[in-house]
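Q: What would this chain look like folded?
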Amino acid sequence: MKGKPNIRLRFNSLTTIIYIFGIILLLQLFNLQIIHGEEYREQSNTRLTRESTAVAARGSILDRNGNPIVENSMGFSLELYKSKVDNQTLNTTILNIVDVLEKNEDSYKDSFPIKINEEEQYYFDFDTDEKAINWKKKMKLDEKLNAQQCIQQLKEKYEIQFDNIYQVRKVLAVRYQILQDGYSTTKSIVISNNISRKSALEFNERSENFPGVSVVVEPIRQYTSGNLASHVVGTIGKISEVKDGYNANDYIGKTGIEYLFEKYLKGQDGTKQIDMSVDGTNTEEYVTQDAVEGSDVVLTIDANLQKVTEQALSNNIQKINSGGFGKKYATNSGAAIVMNVKTGEVLSMASYPDFNPQDFVGGISSENWEKYNTEDTPQVNKTMQTAYAPGSIFKMVTAIAGLESGAITTKETINDTGVYPKYTNPKCWIYTDYHKGHGRLNVSGAIQHSCNYFFYETADRMGIDTLAKYAKYFGLGTKTGIELPNETSGTLASKETKQNLYNEQWYAGETLSAAIGQSYNSFSLVQIAKYISMLANGGNKIQPTIVEKIINSDGTEVSREEIQNYIKEKAGIADENQEDISISQDNLRAILEGMESVTDDQGGTAYSIFKNFAISVGGKTGSAETSTGKVNAWFVGFAPYDDPQIAVVVLVENGGHGYYTAEAVKEIIEQYFGMNIEQVQENVTSIPYTESFR
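A: My prediction, written as structure tokens:
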């Protein structure tokens, strides 16, 4: 019919096209299976293709001026894949690997719990027999076997033919790592992190001797400044439990900023394809997806001020310990912090003793682990993870509470007779030392001379509720929300605290002890620094912070709101409806004048340290007894007096007297203001020391 398509013609055309494609496909199959079949079968039997992770570099940790405290360098890791070799070849390979590493002074992962003693005998490295028995059960060994017998059975199992006991143990150490981590043709185990370039070259140049061995180029964490700000930046370690975005060989933040900001510091790993022969040699590598570097965390810390703060604290502790102030106190620990009084930015934060975070990269040695686990707790950040009784540095809170509540006035004087005539008749410290009182003092003089009697009377007039109210306003006994993990909240002396702790009621006489910084009062240095900063800035609330910003790899910044919400969630901090209090500037001025007299007037408890100092400093000494009978030494201060910029807090555990710690504060202030230390340093050796300083 005219105009209608020819259906038969179309069908024949389609059939022809299908026929042609079929011929082409058959020819391709013939080429693959017949002509090149043997070649491709040979390749499949001799080559393996696997996908591996291209490790992303962690973000750097920088000081406020952009100086790196923690960064990355390109390093080499040694990985082992399963290859088609017999047990004896694998044992020889392992021994060759260890020999190269040891020759070049590179370490390797060794958690095998059977060691060799000086008599060249095997022994179990367990604390208890129970642990040894449990290990033998896991290894499917008879629990009655001794170490030597266990070694013999393992030698037989893995067909180890070496007779040298040290060689045997080396092989078993790596074999044990393989058993722990598991490996295959597509999954490696890491034998050693951050090996030397010399070792890397030798493994690559002699690849035929190391079947299954792969040298991986990857970023290695570098703590550029050694021990600097170690408690702040923290440590990394091998992941203990694999989770989304991680694999078994990954390292993860364990403490400090490294831990808390893991989400941002960890980059996004890429992928790479590795072609390897089945005997484990002749590898080729191709990147299939680029890795994305982690975000940089910029701290509020000034690296130079941090160095001086750490050194001043260390020097101060050593001087006290050696009797440099006239009396020896056994001390080896302390802390210091410098804060911007207007912004709450932490400019330096030191905890002593410290540690080197680099020791934790790649797995910490048993020697270093033992060194860092002592009674001085080197790994604890004593500025915000530990709470201390404040002693006399708390007296400014008592003064503010008394003035603001009307219990006392700035012009009123109270006559210190030495023994307070109420309750248990507590004594002023001057009576204990000299059997007399301070006489009549106003609030400024009471702070200057640290008169206990004055603050006993003030506390008795106003009561514990008023005292606790103002202490809480200054942030004492409450987490500050600073961007560091495991912040302590401390405790604040109050009716509620005693009820919660002991289910007991508060007695009026207990308020006297609370007023001079004892009782249940126990605060962190961060809280104390916030409190002193608020005194210096006119009573305005501030938020302590140690992270200035987070910069993503593309140059954008994480919003401040996101960071704050993240910290609240991580630290479990809830927003509290804290009462806003307006502090009278006249009342506050009286407090600050008393603090200035501490350093500037001859009767002040730190006058001998700050006499003729180029910058006027407001300060307060404090000594607080502990439950163990030791006396912790405090000095808190701010400078300059007329226009405060910084607050400085120093604590030395069992440091004796607050006067002792003032020297460290002075050094820190000198550094901050860029002073020529030789010009302002005074010869104070001629000024006699008396035990009356508080």
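The longest strand covers residues 68-80.
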